[in-house]
Specification:
The chain starts with a helix and ends with a helix. It has helices at 3-69, 73-100, 106-116, 127-152, 158-187. The chain contains five helices and no strands. The chain is mainly alpha-helical. The protein has one domain.
């Protein structure tokens, strides 16, 4: 190659390297941003799911307390209030689920649907039996939700995530290093 070819190559090469490096870095940044947003959406949905389940359990326990004590008006008002709080929490969870279900795995979708399903009660069951059945269902749902949340929100993988992000930063440094080296050579 002649003198003109090396000048052209020394002029174009930094731009090519910079373009490739910028493209890879931008792609990695966008992927990370999307993962973080999906994680935030899942976190919000799980928060509302736990809130709805706990308020449903509180309602069932208030109802059972009323049934067992043959309580007065104060206890009935407490049960009515617990019922409305439980329904509100359920509606909030349903709204967030309907918006964010695209970010969720099949297991998460199934878990949320279990919150919204209506239990089938037999004809012979009285209110106390129904409340017991509902409370048991919600307690199992809460245990399943906690287990799945740990997996889906990567609560147990924080060291692995840290390692991966460190490796990504090192890789980014390696990709930008040739650009800096070429710029230094050209500036001499």
């Amino acid at each position: 190659m002649g003198q003109g070819g090396t000048i052209w190559l020394s002029f174009v090469m930094p731009f090519v390297v910079a373009f490739v490096t910028a493209s890879i870095t931008a792609n990695l940044a966008v992927r990370r941003f999307k993962r973080e947003r999906a994680w935030e959406k899942k976190e919000e949905a799980y928060f509302l799911l736990f809130d709805a389940i706990n308020k449903s359990i509180d309602y069932a326990e208030s109802f059972l307390e009323l049934m067992q004590s043959n309580g007065g008006q104060d206890l009935k008002d407490n049960v009515d209030q617990a019922s409305s709080v439980s329904n509100e929490a359920r509606q909030k969870a349903k709204k967030v689920f309907s918006i964010n279900y695209l970010f969720m795995s099949k297991e998460e979708v199934f878990l949320f649907q279990r919150l919204f399903e209506n239990l089938e009660f037999h004809e012979y069951m009285d209110g106390e039996d129904m409340a017991e059945l509902n409370r048991g269902h919600k307690e199992r749902l809460l245990a399943d939700a906690e287990k799945l949340a740990r997996i889906e929100l990567h609560a147990y993988e924080s060291n692995i995530t840290l390692l991966i992000s460190t490796i990504a930063r090192k890789l980014d440094g390696l990709l930008t290093c040739p650009t800096e080296w070429i710029v230094k050579k050209l500036n001499r």
